[in-house]
Amino acid sequence: MEALERAAPATTRDWTARLERAALAPLVSTSRRYFVWVGFLVLVIAWALYAWATQLQDGLIVTGMRDRISWGVYIASFVFFIGISHAGTLLSAILRAAKARWQLSITRMAELITVVALIVGALFPFIDMGRPDRFMNLLWFGRWQSPLIWDILAIATYLTGSTLYLLLPLIPDFALARDRLGASANRFQRALFTTAAVGYHDTPSQRSALDKAMTTMMIIIIPVAVSVHTVVSWIFAMTLRVPMNTTVFGPFFVAGAIYSGIAAIIVLMAVLRRILRLEEFITITQFKGLGYLLAAFTLIMGYFNLQEYAVHGYKLEEGMPFHFAQLMTGPFWPLFWTYILGCIVLPGLIVLYPRTRNIRGITAAALLALLGMWIERYLIVVAGFRVPLMPYAPADYAPTWVEWSILAGAFALFALIISLFTKLFPVISIWEVREHRGPEPAPASSGLASGRIRAVGAGVLAFGMIAGSGAGLILGGQAGAADPIATRIEVALPAKAGIGQTVQAQARLVDDKGGPVAGAQLKFSASLAFLGAGGRVALVEALTDKAGVVNVEFDLRTAREHEIRVIFSGNDRYAPSNAAATLTVTGEAQLYVEHVGIRVPGLNEAPVVGRAEATDQTGLPLLFAQLWPAMSGWPIALVLIIVWSLYGYVAVQVAHISRAEQSS
Amino acid sequence: MAGIPRRGLMKFFGAGIVAAGLTSVGVGHVAGSPHPAAAQAKGRLRRWAMVIDLRKCDGCQSIGKPPQCTQACIEGHFAPEPMEWIQIYESPLDAEAKATQFLPTPCQQCQNPPCVNVCPVAATFSTPEGTVLIDQQRCIGCRLCMEACPYDRRFFNWGNAPLPPEALFLEYHPEHQSPAIRGTVMKCDFCPDVARAGRLPYCAQGCHNGAIYYGDLEEDIATNGFEVVKLSKFAADNNAYRLKEELGTEPRVRYIPGHGELVGRSPKKKGRLPTVWPWQRLVEGARTWKR
Predict the structure, then answer these.
(1) Which of A144, A511, A569, B255 would suit a FRET pair with B148, their CA atoms being 20 to 30 Å apart?
(2) Other CB atoms within 10 A of residue A190 CB
(3) Would you say domain B46-274 falls under CATH 3.30.70.20?
(4) What is the CATH number of the domain that holds A560?
(5) Cα distance from B169 to chain A (closest Cα, Å)?
(6) 3-state secondary structure of B290
(7) For an interface test with A, which of B12, B86, B100, B147 has the most A Cβ atoms less than 10 Å from its Cβ?
(8) DSSP state string for A289-302
(9) Domain closes at, from A555, A586, A617
């Protein structure tokens, strides 16, 4: 470290010294306003805890959610917070991989947002649970097939990865704090710096291990982040509800997540810059760089909205006219148009218009983008679930004070954790910024055109159901005053049959002189009993041919001795008659095997009670059929093993850093 | 709350979790007693099904009462207000809803059940008999199944459901779901326990028109209590259909199209009486909710 500084020219040394001073100062000096701020946040959180206690005591009845709109602010906020967690990935990984440098002074903040947003966001599904006391069931009985389990696995993986990625670049800075702050830090801080620096002294071998670890994380964190928000979208997209039954949700959610993530960094950067006096190191360069990214994502968001509304709006399948009406002119119109015009179009215009392309303007655009993404998540959840599934009046949802309080508490918790962290480590990655000393020139503006978002308005069409009227079957009866002619039925039938086996039967209808009766209906029936009811069950009917004969087929699935009765009901000319024959049906094989839809291993295989069904549905031997549902998560398990192995590799590199110190 | 010992039956806390253990990873399994259908491993399993003849459903307009299938179900299961496990929807037959049909809608007992697919803890599961049940002692109340169900047939216990005193003496079972447990999901269980005892499900018992045929696809038989029919023939002869067939959920409930014409209802006569929960007056000050 000393060697590095000696090599640098004097102006650089001054700049570096100022950077270190500015970045490390908040760790040792705390103003009274900080305590007032923290006290305020704690009060808000305490109020939210009171609201949550009310909910735990009385149940979810204290919220505005009900059966038809059974998710609300909680799940919308869950998606929102997980979304802004994409801030860190974007800046730290994507921009670092692209070798952009202007973002280095804000990567620390971005990674901090990621970790804190994930922690806060992950609380919401827990708060939303009807039985939080049974949380451990997710562990005991967790199923690979459930989107909620995917969420838990993906978020846990992402949180671990982002925590690693927050801590890795902190190692040299902790070492710096350990070496520089000395006595001015309190005892707890000294212990933290010494431990978290893992004995880093910037030796070549330590530097190489750190590089390896950071490169690994840089690469692995991008697919993990993309997977997280894709999976979050799948709790909606895996349902059969009309507005959500779409394949665009995964990328749409990822784009929205990055959009809100960029906005979150801009806001945090604007706040910390003022409060921590970092104006020299976070300049208009960073704001413009992120501002252009924000503008680019307004276009991407506009594109996805066009995709969503044009494709649905063109076809107007059932439920969509209702959905379009409620969004654009119905109860959600203020939210919807605020979102489209105020939070996607306007931020893009603010950034691209040169006179508003300053720190204040870009921060305002970012605040609008954040607001817009929360609104969008709210609309996806609440408006999406409001579309009636069956003929009932659409439900209504209004969040209660409990939900608003918990949401406020979540924002307060978010701010509190970040505030506390500013006292534990420098919010600028000193060593990285130092290495690329000085502010970089602003990236060349690429002349982004503003997005004109066109939502396709839809006229409401109602589909009429055509009630079919049945045509009456008119049989010409011959009126005759004479007495009906007596008839007789001769039945030919096998004596035995298996259950479900097709039985071929013949019957002949003759008159009293033995002549055939043509065009008469013969009904075959059996006597069956079921659940306390019993009686003649129609098996088959047929009309006699010119020879007076019917040939029919039927099957019986009740194993017993049946009396098959053939009945002629009579008509104007012939008198009714009937005849019977005995048919013994035997067998005990299972006949009805349900062939269900496509089953994708690990995706939609349902748990099934009992062995018989498991064998039936998979057609596999018993043992394998029982094991299969448990093993079917292998694609997910494989991905998890790969990702967590890479985390393990990173941990090994950190151990190398630590061991290198002991050996030196 | 009126001093009803509603907390007396909370013994299931923890017990179910321990009982089921890790042996059942991935495979649904009712905590506690083994599933009754699974016990009879040999022989032919029932495949419960239903055919609802809409030609005979007038929403109980003719007798001037709330729909009696729903009432019988509520009284048989102690279904909490506002749960109508079998609900009579009034569905428009034309664009202006000048004519309507009544649509009794129980849980459709899908064979490719979206709700079962998404459950994170296998609290809702398919049985060999084809019913879809919920183990309320395992349910964590995430309501993912309610989002997944395309038929709006799942109900949540948002609060402490008011129940008649006698409901609290029942022993809980997924095939009966009583007494209701706060923070869990409930729905029509298709009454296989009632059918195994040789009786019709409550809704079919309650229907005085005999519109609800309950049956077994294995034996290919069904009855509404008045007549017995060969299920496949009855459904085919009358052009039976299934709700939202295009979704591929493979429901076990079939409908014969109609609007009550066999029992003298004009499709232009609209409206039915609201369902009542007869014990509400017994549970004073109880806090219910709307759907």
Answers:
(1) B255
(2) 16
(3) yes
(4) 2.60.40.10
(5) 23
(6) coil
(7) B147
(8) HHHHHHHHHHHHHH
(9) A586
* Cβ A560 vs Cβ A569: under 8 Å: no
User: Are A566 and A621 within one domain?
Assistant: no
Which of the listed residues A552, A586, A620 is the one where a domain comes to its end?
A: A586
pLDDT band for position B21 (cuts 50, 70, 90): very low
CB B147 within 8 A of CB B177: no
Residues A273 and A404 placed together within one structural domain of the fold: yes
Looking at the complex, report in whole angstroms how far the Cα of residue B166 sits from the nearest Cα belonging to chain A.
23
Question: B52 near B138, Cβ under 8 Å?
Answer: no
Which strands, in side-by-side order, build the sheet including A549-554? A487-492, A503-511, A549-554
Q: Are residues A624 and A645 in the same domain?
A: no
User: Is pTM, for the whole model, over 0.90?
Assistant: no
Residue ranges covered by each domain of chain B: 46-274
Note the pLDDT of residue B10: 34
Residues of B in contact with A626 (CB under 8 A): 27
Any CB–CB contact under 8 A between B193 and chain A? no
Could you read off the pLDDT of A362-408 as tens digits, one per residue? 999 999 999 999 999 999 999 999 999 999 999 999 999 999 999 99
Nearest-5° Cα angle at B161, B159 to B167: 150
Q: At A607, is the pLDDT very low, low, confident or very high (cuts 50, 70, 90)? A: low
Residues pairing with B91 in the sheet: B101
When divided into structural domains, chain A yields a total of: 3
- Whether A574 and A652 map to the same domain: the answer is no
Mutate to test the interface with B, among A392, A400, A531 (most CBs of B within 10 A): A531
What range defines the domain where residue A623 resides? 598-632
Q: Which residue has the tokens 């030796």?
A: A203
Same domain for A604 and A530, yes or no, is no
Query: pLDDT tens, A531-545?
Result: 988 889 999 999 999
Given a contact cutoff of 8 angstroms between Cβ atoms, the answer to whether B79 and B73 are in contact is yes
pLDDT greater than 90 at residue A103: no
Q: Which residue's entry shows tokens 């009406």?
A: A325
pLDDT tens track for A277-295: 888 888 888 899 899 999 9
- A630 close contact with B: CB closer than 8 A: yes
DSSP secondary structure, B53-91, as one string: EGGG--TTTTTTSS-HHHHHHHHHHTPPTT--SSEEEEE
Asked if residue A449 is part of any domain, the answer here is no
Segment 35-54 of chain A within 8 Å of chain B by CB: none
The DSSP string of B175-234 is TT--S--TT-EE-----HHHHHTT---HHHHH-TT--EEEEETTTTEEE-SS-EE-HHHH
The answer to whether the CB atoms of B146 and A70 lie below 8 A apart is: yes
**Residue B119 CB neighbour total at 10 angstroms:** 30
> At residue B69, what is the residue type?
C
Report how far residue A201's alpha carbon sits from residue B30's, in angstroms, rounded to the nearest whole number. 58
Cβ-nearest to B147 among A239, A538, A555:
A239
- Let me know whether A179 and A39 are in one domain: yes
